[in-house]
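Hi U.,

Before I forget, here's the chain from the pilot set. I'm dumping it here mostly so it's searchable later in email.
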Amino acid sequence: MDTKFNSVKNVSFKVNNIKEDLAMLMFNRSFTLAQVGKQCVVCGKRADIFSCARAEREWTISHMCEPCQNEVFEPMDG
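Structure:
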């Protein structure tokens, strides 16, 4: 069981490192600092108010504020 947990933990660590590297490369911002400071990794503005649960869930993945999400993603029906 420890092996499986360590494997998942290791993959999670790698994914977070990739997110950090990409954020620095693309936006010149730290993904980790954006997360801690509740700031958008794209524009740097405060990102703590969302109009729907879907936008808030996306924040937990990408750390983009809702306006930046709207710029990046196609609108979804429903």
